[in-house]
Amino acid sequence: VGIVKQSNENISDTTENNSSIKSDYSNVGDSSKEENNNALQAEKEKQDYIDNQFKLIAGNVKYFERTYSENEWGLENIEVKNTGDKNIKSFKVTVYFQDEAGNNIAEDSFTFSESIKANYSWKMESGRYYSFDNLASEVNPNKNIIKITDITFEN
Prior knowledge:
single chain
């Protein structure tokens, strides 16, 4: 009988130890949930800023003559306005190419590492363009939508 009693005490001690272990590790998932929530909140803040304070003023897709035998499609004349209260460290512009029905069928993105202070504007250097890589033959570069798709705030 004493042995059984001792075994029960050991089981009870183990259960108490497991409870304390569980409580010690119960917050592990909470920190990753908090990090996920913070990341989601940061993405929402960036998207809200893009939608409301960081405006694409101009941008153009054009066929460029590089040499007498080589031509290519590219993006030129990007102009943005930061009407918000935060400084921008860099931003990404994405060109979505569409089919005749207006469905996106290809895209190409360009990151501009330009510091743009709050309430400032920026325009791409005249005569400069970014060429599109690997556009399939089915893509009509004239059917496109140009959007700002990401920003990085200055710290």
